[in-house]
Amino acid sequence: MTSVLTPKPTKRAYATVNPATGEVVREFPTLTNEEAEATLANAHEAFLSWRETPVAERVRLFRRAADVIDANTAELARLTTLEMGKPLDQSVFEVGLAPQMFRYYADNGEELLRDEEITVPGFSRMITRREPIGVVLGIEPWNGPTYQAMRATVPNLMLGNTVLLKPSEVSAGSTVFLGELLARAGFPPNVYQTALVSTEQVSAYIADPRLRAVTLTGSDRAGSAVAAQAGKHIKPVVLELGGSDAFIVLDSADVAKAAATAATCRLMLGGQICVSPKRIILTDKVAGEFTAAFTGVFATQKVGDPFDPETTLGPLSSTAAADLLQAQYQDAVDKGATVLVPGGRIDGPGAYFQPAVLTDITPDMRLYREEAFGPLAMIYRVPDADAAVELANSSQYGLGGNVFAEDPDEAQSVARRLDTGAVGINTFFGAPIEVPFGGTKNSGFGRELGRSGMDAFANIKNYGTA
After folding, report:
1. What are the residue ranges of CATH 3.40.605.10 in the chain?
2. Is CATH 3.40.605.10 correct for 14-241+443-465?
């Protein structure tokens, strides 16, 4: 088959830049067009045999992959911290999610793929079966490079698809190493490949009939571009985009628990996580007690070297990310926001940002409508639950949300009215492996993980017998 890739030069942009120092540690060349074509051709060829591999053999390889990643957690976590700056213990936690994912699908793959028999008049037997469709392209971000890569990869490999994984330009090292670990685990060649491709090559892949589907985790701008291209070529796409999750605390809440949960979850990964609760919405009754506890956590963070065990907050992923957050912060301050915990860009080498808390955010401020991707929290006060729901749903995003209230009827009422893909009630919901994950509105569409992680890119095929 002739490739749609064109022989024009591509930008070589993959590089590990230590965000703690600004030092370029390693550079990775973008694939040439010839290499990109070979990568896609190999993935397609591998699919033809991988789809015939018995589920029991896939299960065996999944268990082996989990063991190999476990054995290399220290190195994979070190690379993650070096590339994106989160404290080492948080990188260790993230890397540990990948073996969990492999083991979940190993334990449940046969059941998730089991034929469904349905009684249909006129047929002696009707079976619905999930079958693979081909090569899937995963376009993944830097904030959880191992977890995000495997969230796109593991369900598809269990289904029988093959995967090309394009990492963020700043986290290629950890993703390349992850590919090496899967090869050590015994996966056949080219079933999973790290594809260091350019934006132009991504577009060419999407246009190529051998590429059957795309999943992207990233910005709404990137999601819009990929969705437009996939739609043009009539290919399924899953988009997990930005989030500006609301954390609602109502009159009956356990305020101490709510404040501790909100602060911990807002600061994890340096605030650089889509499901982080970025907008804290408090009823007037609980606002004083909550704010005192919440701001106390922000004010006592130790910002510094992410390899130092005493550090609680490392640098942001890049100077560009830190500069963007500073611009959003300064815009709010200049327009009258009240500073509860002062913070902002820290002078010197590295992409450091002192965590900050603001209140009195108004619609003319960038932070009201934009996602704050870093250790910057916003507190809003409202009179009651109805006002909290209205404010929460005013965002263009709808990824997740959290409601804290000891009154179960009120908590459920608020949760039902939130226009989001998930809600945690008296807990942080996060993204459990066992259930579908995704959002509404500008947070994207489609679902990953659970059974949905396979159904998204499965041919759900019916067999009817007379």
Report:
1. 14-241+443-465
2. yes
CATH architecture of 245-433: 3-Layer(aba) Sandwich (3.40)
Residue 274 annotated to the active site:
yes
- Residues of the chain within CATH 3.40.309.10 domain(s) are 245-433
The pLDDT, as a whole number, for residue 13 is 82
Question: How many CB atoms are located within 10 Å of the residue 34 CB?
Answer: 11
240 counts as catalytic: yes
Amino acid at 287: A
- Marked catalytic residue, from 274, 370, 371, 448: 274
Of the residues 83, 94, 240, 370, only one is catalytic, namely 240
Tens of pLDDT, residues 24-48:
999 999 999 999 999 999 999 999 9
Residues 6+ apart with CB under 8 A from 285: 251
Predicted TM-score of the model (pTM) = 0.94
**pLDDT mean by block of 10 residues, the chain; 466 residues:** 42 84 94 98 98 98 98 97 96 97 97 96 96 98 94 97 97 96 98 97 98 96 95 97 96 98 95 94 98 97 96 96 97 98 95 98 96 97 98 96 97 98 96 94 94 94 97
